[in-house]
Amino acid sequence: MASLNKVILIGRLGRDPEITYTPKGTAVVKFSIATNEYYKDDKGEKKELTDWHNIEIWGKMAETAKTYLEKGSLAYFEGKLKTDVWEKDREKKYFTKVVVDNFKFLDTKKTGLGPDKPEPEPSQEGKEDDLPF
Length: 133
Prior knowledge:
Layout: E1 7-13, E2 18-21, E3 27-40, E4 46-58, H1 60-68, E5 74-88, E6 91-105
Parallel strand pairs: 4-6
Antiparallel strand pairs: 1-3, 1-5, 2-3, 3-4, 5-6
């Protein structure tokens, strides 16, 4: 059976995106988002659990994210989990992140986008064209 590595998150940015460039000039943007889960405890009191997720976006999509997303922005992200592993002081270290291949803006706070203004489409670098010609 084939395996699958797919993540879908909707959350708010915990900090402004930070952009860097590889030596070959490829943009990479990094930030974290919060997702919230609500539940009732044994006493029936409403509780909130917040999880933080590290996000990484590459290429033209990274530049779009840097331009339009900021701390507090609500967005939808699709991608895959990737864990970086390295050794420091003879001890293995791990850093898990979501490498995004698609995202959508879900609020119009910074973008000024509204019902009459279409949302810019993030680049789909490396994606196959579905057209039959």
